[in-house]
Amino acid sequence: MSDFQSPYNFVSLSSHVFEPDWKDDVSHDLPFEDGLSGQIAYRLTAIRPLVVGGSRRSSKQGEPAKVAFVHRPGQPNAVVIPGSSIRGLLRNVVEIASFGRMRLVHRGRRLALRDLGGKAKDEYIAKITASEQSRDRSGRSVTAFRSRVSAGFLNFDAARGMWRITPCEMGRIEAADLMGLQQNTAPWAPHTPAPAKYKDFRKANGGSDELWIIAPEAQAHLSHRLNKHIFERRCALAKEGEQGAKRARVVLTGQPNKLKHREFVFFDPRPDQAMDVEPSLFRATAEIHVEAEKAAGDKLQTWKFWFDGVHQPDIPVFWLSEAEVSRGGRADAVHAFGLSMMFRLPARRTVGEMLDAHYGGPSKASTDLPELIFGRLPSGLDEGGLGSEGLRSRVSISMAEPTGSKVERITAGTWLLNSPKPSWYPAYLVQNEPQPGKGVNTYATWITPNAQLRGFKRYQPRTQTPPLNTPSSNPPLSTTLEAVRRGTAFEGVIRFHNLKPAELGALLWALDFGGAEGAQHTLGMGKPYGFGACSLEALPDDPRTRVTRVCDGTRVSDPGEAVTAFTAKMDAWHRAQGAGAWADSLQVRELIALALPAGPASATPYAAAAPAAFADVKKDGRVLRAPLGTASRRA
User: Which of 93, 464, 528, 567 has its CA 20 to 30 A from that of 474?
Assistant: First the structure.
């Protein structure tokens, strides 16, 4: 098997961005000669049970959390769909169909890699370790593996507002010695987190993390378990005043399995060589650890242990220098750091930098159609750098209200609602085409130079949801959803001011995917389980619909002609790029393909739902197939 299943997929990024030739003339005050204003009524119909989340009751005493359908403030029986939900849905379609830039992302985010078992293992290990000739304890020349990782103490310099790492020496010591046990005995059970180990050790060591050690010079030691030589300093306990004894800080990391029987000792700090940690690197490292600990629940709380609201002095960290990861890099510059030797390596580039590299320039250098219609924030109010000046939206969408006098709400089951993690590189990054039945030989990961984002994520509608009475596999971590039944209809209006015909056409095209037969949107919660499939349509004959020309106030008899203006504009632009017909473009075809219902949804929608299954996917080199069949596409 060379691929895996997922309830979501991606529409490929285009290397071309459509920038309307009227982008510098948009105004609320000066009308376009062909500008249109007014409102168009729309209807949303639930094709599958629909869950638009409102109030949430947290999990209590082992019971699942519960999410109610959103309603008018103070009117719990008056269910509605917020206009912001419809707006976000339409904007995403317009972004793709009009060849806009991917903008609504966390541009400052840096994803990370820590892979010890899959086909990305070699890339990760090469960053962390090096092999070199050394001598073992008998003096023989052997090839030994040396960790590229150094040790140090992290402190916050309040006067400069900077975190700094003071480098120091590092050695290994038997955990059994620390706890007064027999040799080669692991004092802690598998999966014991570092904070729990510190609690045990401090109790055994009089409340202190420090003790006296003898630290021989580093040698190549044969690891019988790994069947290879490891170049390291293996230390032993000593008494104060003993010849050669050093004061050392014991550093404990998580217990991955029962085989780990050595811990770390840090000693001989060099304060005169302290190095600054770039603020962006510290933020990225904090995000990476916080996200990992949030996903692991109570099983992993090391970052919180050291950074729980106070700046503790001398936090023990493991760090990589620039010299270890790139030729010509500085030995006194911090490339990355973490709280264990095999820490998660952050990408060199942020998500925003990856996008800018793809598009050939920063986002603030261009203005696309979605920005002109829906507006943008001025740079400085977010991390996106979305433009030097703000741009007011010329569209507002009312909340959608039920068409019937009474809406039946149902309990739509209890489900695990784990969000997909962008760190899942087999899906989120462009991969090579796998060998038939064998998968890829190597993965592109977040630390791979020139790695490319897959594109706009979309959940595909399903022909059927799992039975609503499917028992939850883990009730305390699950959520009970309140939904409206399939067939429930809501209506509202889209109001707009001074839109050019092509801009109004983009909105109308996004409602029903240009009239593509069977195409559906997905909205709200539970999309991996098939919830949220719905249709949107304009209501041109509804009395609420009225479109007038801004210049003279005359009524437009057929607003649908704006769709033709939009498609003609996009087709002419796309052909001018030498890329053929717009309707035949990869992006439009993938967008439509992902709007067409796939088969029934599964009660376990993620093929790699468990850690072991994730590991199997990476071990096999499997990838997420693109909507049109290939592993991934570069367009």
Answer: 464
